[in-house]
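Deliverable D5.2: sample structural annotation.
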Amino acid sequence: MFSFPFMSDLKTDSPKIPQSTRMLKGLSLLNRGGGLANTASGIYANRARSRMGVNRFNLEALMDDLEAKQIETNAVAQSNYIKNQLLDNMASATALFANSGKDVASAGVLHDISRNNAMTDILNTQDQGRLGAIKARTSAVSNRANAKITDAFGRFERSGMRYNLIKEGANFLYNARGLIGG
């Protein structure tokens, strides 16, 4: 069996702890103190990482909400543009018929065609706007749920780390008592 040179200092009947053993216990205590510091800094780092994840997901949700509002606003603007184009087309058709000497009432057929085409375009634009907004809002809801999951998982992970910190702290105090008291 391998033995260290300082092992000869150990005597079972001596109540005093040999210097070499005290040094080893001191080094062990220092190692446990480093473990405590490492676990404590890990808890802090986990909290910061968790907070950053939550903030990132909440920011993405906010951006998705803004995107939904922008999509709806663009759909309304596009619908208004199509309505204005319809009115311009109808006025142009009426003026064309009036300038050519034909009955202005004959432009009604062109008005009906333009109106039907414009209504189809307006309905398509509004439907696409609604679908785009729904998609963006769904993404926002998903990002808010991910933020809550990230926060909960971070708390769960930190609870395990706190348990380890308490356990390491108890071991540290036990070893310190043995070093000081012995």
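Annotation notes: The CA atoms of residues 68 and 133 lie 4 Å apart. The two ends are 27 Å apart (CA to CA).
The annotation will be released with the project's public dataset once the embargo ends.
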